[in-house]
Write a structure and sequence with these properties.
By secondary structure, the protein is mostly helical. Helix 1 runs antiparallel to helix 3, helix 1 crosses helix 6 and helix 3 packs across helix 5.
């Protein structure tokens, strides 16, 4: 099954990725790392949306290889890897890595996705 079997186009997957990244950042807005570590509900919401971001990246990698190869500025492999670690190793998720991803990687990803969708 490829990405087209789901009736979604490239822009749909990019929109899912952008929405997931924006939701994650909204969920932790104004929160300290310590508050995040103590807030299981926010952790679960964040993890779900990071999985959505990674799943959309996986679908693009699997069905739109030419598009993905034209945009090496997007960390496709890292997003796929994080999604797999979260989905298959839920009990071993490192919240320090999740927090670092939220603070460093997601803002950069948001900018890149907005640029990509605008082009």
């Amino acid at each position: 099954m490829n990405a087209d079997d789901h009736g979604l186009r490239i822009d749909d997957y990019l929109a899912h990725m952008l929405e997931g990244a924006q939701l994650v950042r909204k969920y932790v807005d104004g929160m300290s790392k310590e508050e995040f570590i103590q807030d299981r509900r926010t952790q679960q919401a964040v993890i779900l949306n990071l999985i959505v971001v990674g799943e959309a990246a996986t679908r693009l990698c699997g069905g739109h290889e030419e598009f993905v190869s034209k945009h090496p500025e997007i960390p496709w492999r890292q997003m796929r890897g994080m999604r797999n670690r979260m989905a298959h190793g839920y009990f071993d998720i490192n919240l320090d890595v999740v927090w670092e991803t939220i603070q460093v990687s997601l803002p950069e990803l948001e900018v890149r996705l907005l640029q990509l969708r605008g082009s």
